[in-house]
Specification:
single chain; 235 residues; alpha+beta; four-stranded mixed beta sheet; 8 helices; 12 strands
Length: 235
């Protein structure tokens, strides 16, 4: 409470705008028709902000709030958005400085690719903090994502960089995966990584999209990360 002043971290300021507004700006620049914010019931300040922005800052982009009733992982959260269309998925504690890979990823979905994941190089010392993507560096075709591997587990040194783009077909795949009765009966989280790996194993076409020079992923999920992010020249 003393750090955030009672605000959810998504509403903390970065320069003149909150974190979430910058994420919505990024989505709008990538050409989305509207945005669904997957929220928890306790974060009523986000509901209030979305209601205000829908009449002001983002009046040109329909906004909707959907709720994840249980914290059961990122895959489950995406399914909770109830989107039956192509979709961009932007994690709420990650912003981009100096440009975003989202437009390139959206274009790949429009061309018929099933899904994309943004990737960036990661040091061997930090691999245990990320999902690491194994892919053909010539075609970009993803073969697998490994969750928090050691350097000995994989030759890849490319980490998931907080952005995804999915086709309508894969969004339906996510829904079916999460609604499987066996999974619903278990308390385990349903992670997006496991769903992507399952889809790839069944022949879906996923591509890795490398973050370009000048495009910087900025984490805001922890106190230390947010303090570092605030020092950047956002405006």
């Amino acid at each position: 409470m003393s750090v955030t002043g009672g605000l959810p971290k998504e509403l903390l300021p970065l320069g003149s705008k909150p974190v979430l507004a910058r994420i919505l700006d990024e989505a709008r620049e990538a050409g989305v028709d509207g945005a669904v914010i997957v929220n928890g019931r306790a974060k009523i300040q986000i509901d209030d902000a979305i209601d205000e922005w829908s009449h002001t800052t983002f009046a040109d982009m329909p906004l909707k709030v959907s709720y994840q009733e249980e914290a059961r992982g990122l895959g489950h959260a995406v399914a909770a958005g109830l989107v039956d269309d192509d979709a961009l998925v932007l994690l709420g504690d990650v912003v981009y400085f100096g440009g975003s890979p989202m437009t390139r990823m959206a274009n790949l979905i429009h061309r018929g690719i099933d899904g994309c994941v943004a990737v960036e190089p990661v040091s061997e010392a930090d691999m245990h903090l990320y999902g690491v993507v194994e892919f053909d560096e010539f075609t970009g075709c993803v073969s697998r994502i490994r969750e928090k591997p050691s350097p000995a587990d994989t030759e890849s040194r490319w980490a998931v960089a907080g952005r995804f783009a999915f086709s309508q077909a894969f969004m339906s795949f996510i829904t079916d995966y999460c609604e499987d009765p066996v999974r619903l009966s278990q308390p385990a989280e349903i992670n997006l990584t496991e769903i992507i790996n399952s889809a790839v194993s069944k022949g879906m076409d996923f591509r890795a999209v490398a973050v370009q020079p000048g495009q910087e992923r900025v984490d805001c999920g922890s106190v230390q990360e947010y303090a570092t992010a605030r020092k950047m020249d956002w405006d």
